[in-house]
Design a protein that fits this description.
The chain has three helices and eight strands. With about 140 residues, it is α+β, with helices and mostly antiparallel strands. It has a single domain, classed as 2,3-Dihydroxybiphenyl 1,2-Dioxygenase, domain 1, CATH 3.10.180.10. The relative contact order is 0.21.
C-alpha cells in the first residue's frame, strides 16, 4: 500500500495570485500566507493554512508550466490537483505502480524541499493526484 498519511493540500490554479488571495480573504475570511516561487515547476504559490489541510493557490511564471497550460483551457482558473502525504515516496510510487497507476512526469521537489510526484489522472478517478513525502 502507498502509505497515505493524510491530505496535504488542494491546489487551485489562478491567473492572478494576489487577486485570488484578496478574493479568499474578502469572501471567505481566510488569509493566504507569503508568496513563494518554485522555478522547477514554473509557478508562484501561496498557501492558506486551515490547520488540518491547506489550499495552495498557484500561478504560472513561465508559459511552458503545466499550470499555464491548465489556464489556457480554464482561463478563470480552477481546481488543479489534490495532494496526499506519504512517509516514503519511493514505497508509495512502487505500490501505486503495482496497482496499475502511472506516474505523470518525473518526481521533483516542492517549494519546501519535500519530494513530490504526480499520478496520471486517467488512473485515479480522473483527478490529478500529487504525492508528497512528509516526515513528522
Amino acid at each position: 500500500m502507498p502509505n497515505i498519511k493524510g491530505l496535504s493540500h488542494v491546489a487551485i490554479a489562478v491567473p492572478d495570485l494576489e487577486a485570488a488571495a484578496q478574493a479568499l480573504a474578502a469572501k471567505l475570511g481566510i488569509n493566504a500566507g507569503p508568496i513563494k516561487e518554485n522555478p522547477q515547476q514554473g509557478v508562484r504559490l501561496s498557501y492558506v493554512d486551515l490547520g488540518n489541510a491547506r489550499i495552495e493557490l498557484i500561478q504560472p511564471i513561465s508559459p511552458d508550466s503545466p499550470i499555464a497550460k491548465f489556464l489556457e483551457r480554464n482561463p478563470a482558473g480552477g481546481l488543479h490537483h489534490v495532494c496526499f502525504n506519504t512517509e516514503d515516496l519511493d514505497v508509495a510510487l512502487a505500490a501505486v505502480t503495482q496497482a496499475g497507476v502511472r506516474q505523470a512526469g518525473k518526481a521533483g521537489l516542492n517549494v519546501h524541499g519535500d519530494r513530490i510526484a504526480f499520478l496520471n489522472p486517467k488512473d485515479v478517478l480522473g483527478a490529478l493526484v500529487e504525492l508528497e513525502e512528509k516526515h513528522e
